[in-house]
């Protein structure tokens, strides 16, 4: 179980995160939503250990600073908004296979099993037909799906995704959420698409000005009245076939 207790973070005198306390349910999809600049990406950076947390975040009762970096990399994978452009000459298949790196010993080659896992994730994310292409030749949406496949190929216990639906067509947005459901692990996903958050996630966290404004099931938390206060626009809801839809 991933838990955060009293996490604070500031840059100079600007408070970015203010007394964040959360428990993320195991094997569920938790979305983090909120206005731009409210601290969503910074929170993910702390969970991924890109930013130090001073023993405020624990995984299965152990502070993440106490977990060896390689061990933590096997447990937690992140898709950030910052992508490497130094790998533009790499093939798609090679990039996805890099997701297996935390599971390898030093100088150990990728195995047949590693290749099989990478192939499966390329198939699941709809990029298998791109496997022989260089990453620099792809569209923004195709590149995004490559890095999603790489993160999933890591087979982590916790998958962190920072705005993964950016650049994706509606078809692939919905396909990604279906795959995350089938992935069956703990997924923490920053979303700007509030309709997807309401429709596809098990748990929701609303951030505002570096704080947790609310947390709970989307049908309970993502109400028009509450969201209008956060985003300052009117919202509307509908329910069909047990799906909760949110409009603005």
From TrEMBL:
Domain of life per record: Bacteria
Domain ABC transporter: 2-234
Keyword ATP-binding part of the UniProt annotation: yes
KW Transport (keyword) present: yes
Matches recorded under SUPFAM superfamilies: P-loop containing nucleoside triphosphate hydrolases
The name this protein goes by in its record: Iron complex transport system ATP-binding protein
UniProt keyword annotations, A-Z: ATP-binding, Nucleotide-binding, Translocase, Transport
Annotated InterPro entries: AAA+_ATPase (IPR003593), ABC_transporter-like_ATP-bd (IPR003439), ABC_transporter-like_CS (IPR017871), P-loop_NTPase (IPR027417)
An annotated Gene Ontology molecular function: ATP hydrolysis activity
Higher taxonomy: Bacteria, Bacillati, Bacillota, Negativicutes, Selenomonadales
